[in-house]
């Protein structure tokens, strides 16, 4: 009888230990795992113009449409321009489920509260380093806040890089598609190459497209060319720079990437 009890206890321990180990590993994988999706990305706010019927302004915002979520990445510099472009693009503010703010600067957060007046029923993912008074103001509209420190899953197929950088904390979006990973940046203050490297490290996926502001205005041609070489070394297949990338940098990226260069600006629609 004692032998039977011992066997039962040993088996229980083994089963429990195995189950715990399995759960731990599943949890770790699930934390970083992002399913492959086919999004549509619409640039809603930018200082470069693609659709002449839309208004431009210094700043950036884009909408990521998936099968089950509409995610607004950044909100441009002001509400009137953002809301006007949203209306002209026949997007309903109430259909936006999630807002992701890349960093604290006003050209990426300025349109937020005008949008929250139209639709407070959203979840706002923002860097943990954001000021508390801003977080309080956001919640006063009725929106939910999720503070981002490390990489976090935002929706099926989409996650954040987490806060990157030293002086200016910034998060970027990573979208996993059948073509590879799409990286969307606001201003790339932590360094566009650093963001791409971090994205590959987190997901272990090939980079299909890098889109958004690369923060290269005023950068020398030689430094820009060095960055472009790093893009190639990192396997970036396509680029869609805009906002703070700078005219010269955009021209140099276009010369290098040719057919794989996507001219970006307000009103640009990219379907994967």
List keywords for this structure.
alpha/beta, 13 strands, Metallo-beta-lactamase, Chain A, 7-stranded mixed β-sheet
Describe it.
With 272 residues, this protein is an alpha/beta fold. Helices cover 36% and strands 23% of the residues. The protein has 8 helices and 13 strands. The N terminus is likely disordered.
Summarize the SSE layout with pairings.
Elements: H1 2-32, E1 40-46, E2 60-65, E3 70-73, H2 79-88, E4 98-100, H3 106-109, H4 112-118, E5 123-127, H5 132-140, E6 144-148, E7 152-155, E8 158-160, E9 173-177, E10 180-185, H6 192-203, E11 207-213, H7 221-233, E12 238-242, H8 247-257, E13 269-271
Parallel strand pairs: 3-4, 4-5, 5-6, 10-11, 11-12
Antiparallel strand pairs: 1-2, 1-13, 2-3, 7-8, 8-9, 9-10
Helix pairs in contact: 2-4, 7-8
Biggest β-sheet strands, sense, barrel: 7 strands, mixed
- Please compute the radius of gyration using only Cα atoms: 21 Å
Specify the overall morphology.
globular
> What would you say the CATH architecture is?
4-Layer Sandwich
Placed side by side, the strands forming the largest sheet appear as: 6-5-4-3-2-1-13
Secondary-structure element sequence?
HEEEHEHHEHEEEEEHEHEHE
Q: What's the count of strands? A: 13
Question: In percent, how helical is the residue content?
Answer: 25-40%
CATH fold name: Metallo-beta-lactamase, Chain A
CATH homology superfamily: Ribonuclease Z/Hydroxyacylglutathione hydrolase-like
CATH class: Alpha Beta
Percent strand equals 15-25%
